[in-house]
Amino acid sequence: MAAEGPAGGSASRSKRADAQRNRETVLTAAAEVFVTSGVDAPIRRIAAQAGVGMATIYRHFPTRADLVTAVYQHQIEACAEAGPHLLARAGSPFDALRQWIDIFVDFLVTKHGLADALQSDSDRFAALHAHFLDRLLPVCAQLLDAAVEAGDIRPGTQPYELLRGIGNLCVGRDDDPRYDPRRLIALLLQGLRPHAS
Amino acid sequence: MAAEGPAGGSASRSKRADAQRNRETVLTAAAEVFVTSGVDAPIRRIAAQAGVGMATIYRHFPTRADLVTAVYQHQIEACAEAGPHLLARAGSPFDALRQWIDIFVDFLVTKHGLADALQSDSDRFAALHAHFLDRLLPVCAQLLDAAVEAGDIRPGTQPYELLRGIGNLCVGRDDDPRYDPRRLIALLLQGLRPHAS
DNA sequence: GACAAAACGGAGCGGTGCTCCGGATACTAA
DNA sequence: TTAGTATCCGGAGCACCGCTCCGTTTTGTC
Fold this sequence. Notes:
The structure is a homodimer.
Chain A: H1 17-37, H2 43-50, H3 54-60, H4 64-89, H5 93-110, H6 114-118, H7 126-149, H8 159-169, H9 181-192
Helix pairs in contact in A: 1-2, 1-4, 4-5, 4-7, 5-7
Chain A binds a DNA duplex through α1, α2 and α3.
């Protein structure tokens, strides 16, 4: 709680220049390594790729979740912002929900191991899980509410449960032609529609 | 392919007495450790619990998947056998499918980390995944076919996809009151029902 | 009891997460 | 420009893990 430096500045600009530079270097390197080795890649490898020491990574991103969060920050944000946008543009709230889920799923399945990390049983990624929730849960809830309001789906589904379920369905090997999470998610959405008794 | 010893014996009885004894000891110890520490527990810990060396475990169960498979052998078998049984007893093929899935889910969620292991994107549990599939896929397919035949659900769903989807929905922390995989699986099944257009 | 085959146990190797601290670096003030 | 200092860096080091190798012990047989 000590006083901040002069002129405060925004979140990540109140550091020394080399620190700021290294932060970016690490983020770039991590993004590259994540593509080839998944978000579970050894910190040593990321450090080597960035040409820095391990401690530098830990100093900027104390937990692995912090690093992953920072790397995918923009895409999480884009996904969150797509929600209201779709709600305004799509043909129906249900379509908006469906398209938003498509975006979310595309995001998850193209990042090797990200879905696994999100639902990991260990606590190593707790902060990542929390950040996804903070940012995306309200969006999902809004879309869900709108669809219920419009009578497109039955009420009673909890946004958290739906979001985690979708994430769960994206877990595991993504190169298996026998398994496409999108088909199951479509079934799930179908199950949400009102009974046409 | 060398000649077997005298009196051959069934699968795991053609070894020396101490080996046979240790095999059982290890299985018991592993079952205990799995309950408290999950199926990812360190081999060292299981060895300590059993009072044997690590090499003994690796000798009897070359991969972790072999050990896990052996520990849960009986329950996998029971689950597989429940399929035809339910099909004969339940009110409808759909009910049979639903009840069988309940059994499967109960099995998964009560073994910490088992669902995670099954869908793990590493290859460490490949043999476990394969064994589950060998044993349960035909059962699931039979139940699915019967339900389609009876007109309870729409055709077109692949047993593998359904089984893996259910497994996926069981992944992650099992002590979160906000998330109950059974509710989502019920939705999934609902989505399988014919459109009452 | 002697012998060989089988099984055992744990030291040891490579790899990983994370920390600690001596040294290098960037800003500040004179 | 040059000192001085707070900040940051790098990698050695420790703990833990999976897995193997090999000298030792146990078991079954003659």
